[in-house]
Write a structure and sequence with these properties.
15 strands; 4-stranded antiparallel sheet; 12% strand; alpha/beta; Rossmann fold; Gyrase A, domain 2; globular; RNA-binding; 20 helices; 5-stranded parallel sheet; 4 domains
Length: 577
RNA sequence: GCGCUUGUAGCUCAAUUGGAUAGAGCGCCUGACUUCGGAUCAGGAGGUUGAGGGUUCAACUCCUUCCGGGCGCACCA
């Protein structure tokens, strides 16, 4: 139940009535009219901008129009206590306490569905995220995008959309050849005692490759590793298998579960690249040509080659993009276009890609290709997750590719845990660089928003424990005949904003709003809790060691929201800390 | 040079998809507490939202021109 949507509907009905009678002129669309949360200082529950939107068209001042409309609105609703018009023309609605009693009854009786938007059409989404090269463990750089993608999926799922989570495995191309060679040299190091060529910059130096090599040797005793050319294909397979095993383990420790892993190599071997290029050729999006050097580039270093290009400039890209290398092999882009054709063929309503900041330059060309393939704009949305700045001992911690100098997901989980990693990584808008302060993240205080929110739940759980009730089970009471106080209504108002929070998070694909909301709700709750210090009436457990029904329901409603919110974020809510 | 992105309190960030007097946390200054439900709370100071122009009843938000930061810019993935 979204009270803002409900009242917006009421208001629109009144507007249509008035316009039928000829008393009001309406624009062709009522989209600009909204029902909002009024700023706290106004002591009001819902506000609408309707008078300001319609004033010009009706040649009346916003205030006059608001006066007329507010009378109409109040006239048809007994639950409204007070309605006021505030400059520059807002109409503010304040409800009687009984409204909030009804409200909490409604959300307690429908606790499973509270927050879900039932008015919107449900879509079938595909979200691709992580898709890190299968050449080693995931590190912090992958982490933020991984969590972002996972939580976006959770929000959409919460809102009853269909979601498929997918990982594109780049198991084809030069990087994979270098990776296989690296594993091979580690095998030689172990089996034939030859030192690993550490100076070869093409190779992957990481120590984890020693483990890969050992695992491969142990489970493939029948293979003779002496001659690389004889076993290169098999070894590639085995090496990728090892890497994927590790990556999946990392994802699992972050609480992330993909539905599909799609292999680039399989797409190529199935000739899906040829097919998609044929398709593009038919539609004149492909031609043989040369790419010019960008301005500022030294012309002497620039080699012009004729190659197969995709006309991404037709869709606003700044240059056309190569599909084929000079040795006729497909570029990464070409197989990615094939992958996106593959996605389109599976008939999703909406495709979402989560990319790291360093791949933002890639967005234009891939959305261009999807537009060319589907003939529709906006079919693919790309979300970029900005960099994470690691801070240790109050100093920035620089990662470099040299071995031992970068932080893996494993390190992160071991040091700060899954919950803190997820909550903090998500706590900020994905568009903004994030400071990840190791010392702060493990701190158990108010400075750490995770614990602040969890502690709220713990406090509620402790009340239930004291009276021998289970917080997790549903509560049923006979009569909702009580009235909430001002302090309590204040929190109920916040609870009424929850569907709006879900809506915005879901529509804008901005899940950071959820931790922010939970923090605000928790803050109100902690304040209320502390009122009990001076005022026994505000304590949940009274002198008779009992909790009255109104308080019990009130606590349950708050804990329900915290639980659903934390479930979406993918973080636990302990009952004791 | 071009493209994307970002600039909000001393610091880290929000701001309800264009709304009202721009809000939190940290830090600073008061105050509650012999752990009672303190992993908490109450109060205070702190702002020309990088700068200018425009659109709008209304701009942190949209457009535009500058300025500063980040990322990217061949056949790598």
């Amino acid at each position: 139940m979204n009270i803002f949507d409900k009242y917006l509907d009421n208001i629109k009905k009144i507007l249509l009535d008035l316009s039928k009678k000829g008393d009001l002129i309406l624009p062709s669309s009522l989209d600009g009219i909204t029902a909002e949360i009024p700023p706290a200082k106004f002591d009001s529950d819902i506000s609408t901008n309707v008078a300001m939107v319609l004033s010009k068209l009706n040649k009346k001042s916003p205030i006059d129009l608001a006066d007329i409309l507010s009378d109409k609105i109040k006239g048809q609703d007994k639950l409204i206590d007070e309605i006021s018009v505030v400059k520059p023309g807002f109409i503010n609605i304040k409800f009687k306490p009984i409204f909030w009693t009804n409200f909490i009854k409604e959300i307690i009786q429908n606790s499973k569905s509270y927050g879900i938007n039932n008015n919107e059409a449900k879509k079938n989404y595909l979200i691709e995220f992580v898709s890190a090269n299968p050449t080693g463990p995931l590190h912090v750089g992958h982490c933020r995008g991984a969590i972002l993608g996972d939580v976006i999926a959770n929000v959409l799922l919460f809102n009853k959309h269909k979601v498929t989570k997918e990982y594109y495995v780049n198991d084809y191309g030069n990087q994979i050849i270098n990776f296989t060679k690296s594993v091979y040299f580690r095998i030689r190091e172990i089996s034939f005692n030859e030192p690993f060529p550490i100076d070869n910059e093409e190779l992957y130096p990481g120590d984890y490759l020693i483990d890969f090599a050992k695992n491969i040797l142990n489970s493939n005793k029948d293979i003779d590793f002496k001659n690389f050319n004889n076993i290169s294909e098999k070894l590639t397979e085995l090496a990728i298998e090892e890497a994927l095993k590790l990556i999946k383990k990392n994802l699992k420790s972050l609480g992330i579960n993909h539905d599909n892993f799609i292999s680039e190599k399989k797409l190529v071997l199935n000739h899906e690249v040829e097919k998609v290029i044929e398709f593009l050729q038919k539609n004149k999006f492909v031609y043989k040509g040369k790419i010019k050097a960008p301005a500022g580039e030294d012309d002497d270093n620039w080699i012009e080659r004729e190659q197969l290009l995709f006309k991404s400039t037709d869709f606003g890209d700044d240059k056309d993009r190569a599909l084929q290398k000079s040795d006729n092999a497909w570029t990464y882009f070409a197989s990615d276009v094939a992958y996106h054709k593959n996605k389109l063929d599976r008939k999703f309503d909406q495709l979402i890609n989560i990319l790291g900041a360093d791949h933002a330059g890639y967005i234009k060309r891939i959305t261009s290709s999807v537009e060319a393939l589907s003939n529709s704009k906006g079919k693919l949305i790309c979300k970029v997750s900005q960099l994470v700045k690691l801070i240790k001992n109050k100093k920035p911690f620089k990662m470099s590719k040299r071995k031992g100098d970068y932080i893996t997901v494993d390190d992160l989980i071991n040091e700060v845990g899954k919950d803190a990693t997820r909550f903090i990584m998500l706590n900020r808008s994905s568009d903004v660089e994030l400071d990840f302060d190791f010392d702060n993240v493990v701190e158990k205080s108010k400075d750490n928003p995770l614990y602040y929110v969890q502690y709220c739940y713990v406090r509620i759980a402790s009340v239930f424990r004291h009276i021998g009730k289970d917080l997790k089970s549903d509560i049923k009471i006979d009569k909702y005949d009580f009235e909430y106080s001002k302090d309590e209504i204040n929190i109920l108002k916040k609870i009424s904003e929850w569907p709006k929070c879900i809506d915005t998070s879901s529509n804008k694909l901005e899940p950071h709003r959820i931790p922010t909301y939970l923090f605000e709700l928790s803050s109100l709750f902690h304040s209320y809790w502390n009122l009990g210090k001076d005022n026994p009436d505000k304590r949940f457990i009274n002198d008779q060691k009992k909790v009255t029904n109104d308080k019990l329901i009130f606590l349950k409603a708050i804990s329900n929201i915290i639980k659903s919110g934390m479930d979406i974020v993918g973080v636990s809510v302990p009952e004791k800390m």
